[in-house]
Amino acid sequence: MPPALLYRCADASALNFQTTTDLRQLDGLVGQQRALGAPQLGASLNKPGFNLFVTGFAGSRMQKTVESLLKSFRWDRPRPDDWVYANNFEDSRKPVAMRLPPGRATELRSTIEEAIDDLKVALPALFESEDYQARRTATEKKFQSKQSDAKRPHRQA
What is the structure's pLDDT at 31? Predict the structure, then answer.
């Protein structure tokens, strides 16, 4: 195909806006009717092994579009349980799967984030407390004393 057929010049004077910021935000994906129907089809398949996988370019608002589509569907079945995968401290290659009631995974995430924020403040304060510093100093003195004793030459009887 010749390059001339691959390029189409638009007449900027025919456009009724100065910049794209003058335009209102469009809902959904323009010209992607099949793509818009796919999430509903995928989500309606209520059989093991069927999953919904969506991908798109960064900045394409694909995730928000699919989320709003899924929220707009009329569902004739109960909302599925949430699944959370947590670290397995005994074997980090095998995460622990936890089934939660619908909507509770978001609540769990928020609770964990709050706990982390609290610990970021509480732990440094704990290590700066007078009680901790006194116990640390006592422990250091005990080990220094043991180290000094170990370095002294032993007398043979």
Answer: 62
- Write out the residue range of the structural domain in which residue 56 sits: 33-77
> Taking the CB of residue 44, how many other CB atoms lie within 10 A of it?
13
Structure tokens at 137: 């100093």
Q: Is position 63 within any domain?
A: yes
pLDDT at residue 156, rounded to an integer: 66
Averages of pLDDT over each 10 residues, the chain, 157 residues = 85 88 76 75 79 78 79 77 94 95 94 97 92 94 89 72
Count of beta carbons in the 10 Å neighbourhood of residue 108: 14
3-class secondary structure per residue, the chain? CCHHHHCCCCCHHHCCCCCHHHCCCCCCCCCCHHHHHHHHHHHHCCCCCCCCCCCCCCCCCHHHHHHHHHHHCCCCCCCCCEEEEECCCCCCCCCEEEEECCCHHHHHHHHHHHHHHHHHHHHHHHHHCHHHHHHHHHHHHHHHHHHHHHHCCCCCC
pLDDT for the residue numbered 28: 58
d(CA 61, CA 5): 30
Distance of CA 52 to the CA centre of its chain: 18
Q: How many domains does the structure of the chain reveal? A: 1
